[in-house]
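hi!! sorry for the late reply, been swamped w classes. u asked for the two structures so here they r. pasted raw, havent cleaned anything up. first the sequence of the first protein and right below it the tokens
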Amino acid sequence: MAGLLNEKINKNFIVFEGIDGSGKGTQVELLKDYFLKKGRKDVVFTFEHTRDGQWSQNIEDIVSGKIKNISSEKVQLLYILDRKDHIHNFILPNLKKERKVFCDRYFLSTLAYGSLDGKTHWKTLWNYHKEIIGDEMIMPNKIFFFDVEPDLAISRIVQRDIKKTIFENRESLKKIREAYLSIGPHFDGFEVIDASGTPENVFNSLKSRLADYL
């Protein structure tokens, strides 16, 4: 999808994506532990949305259902604003120090989740990145999408002892998964990982894809 942002792909920037209940968070924790045991100091982990940015509380209130009757487009604009701060304050500074940055969710989440209502085209949301973030927008070298069927995702969500978000229902997860799989291939570095197996098997698959970074 070259040309929309004059993309600057950074070889040390890796992103993980997936629908809620995909097991993505588990894989991130396994990878963190892997690097910790190796004593690696050149690796940092981060996530979106941020939890300490100026837009984070607004986003929390929306996804938890505390704030209602807000359009999907406006919700995703908040995510993009949060992303702008995240890039400027964390991602870019660490990349400039030659660290490898692993990010749990990034722009593709906005494009997939933002198209859920069927009213906003993902290309519109992509162009908002150009308008809001501009030249600071950094593209990842790899985008790993942990793919599971919605029914499996729901069963995993039920087992978690945390409050569900507004997206965690079968119909929404089905649409979001379909959006990921249709939008993702438009971007360089998009790879699908079958996340339906055991955490250990999925992690072995991830490690094989990350051989150059381990």
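now the second protein. again sequence first, tokens right under
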Amino acid sequence: MEEIKTYTQSERDWAMFCHLSALAGYFFPFGSIIGPIICWISRKDESAWIDINGKSSLNFQISVLLYTVLAIPLCFILIGIPIIVFLIILKVVCIIIAGIRAGKGETFKYPVSIPFIQ
């Protein structure tokens, strides 16, 4: 049986910010990477929970960026367009779900995320 851990409200809030800060990418170039980096680096030494969520968020954002870059050449043969649309929808949905779950102190494993940062 999985052990349930309790985290302080501050830990849960910062873990949530690590995920939701990735939405900054829709307003600033590379904001989806810079936002989680800032949240993670500023608080990773204070809590293992924030460290885990920050790494998870960054790994997902880097993975989606890589998949998008790989899909761009496929747009010339039209298959890349639905792939990029799928990635955009997946990104928004996963960020929101991960943010909500982190705010509750629950874990969330991003799909299609490559663990670049261990």
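hope this helps!! also noticed smth abt the second:
The mean pLDDT is 92.
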